[in-house]
Amino acid sequence: MGKFITLQSADGFSLPAYVAEPAGQAKGAIVVVQEIFGVNAHIQEVTNRFAEQGYLAIAPAAFERVRPGVDLGYNESTIKDGIALKTAAMALPADAVLQDIQAAIDFAGKTSGGKVGIIGFCWGGLLTWQAACKLNGLSAAVPYYGGGMVVESEIARQPKVPVMAHFSDHDHSVPMEGVEAFRKAHPEVDVHIYNADHGFNCDHRGAYNEAAAKQARERTLGFFASQLA
Question: CA 226, 181, 192, 217 torsion: positive or negative?
Answer without folding.
Answer: positive
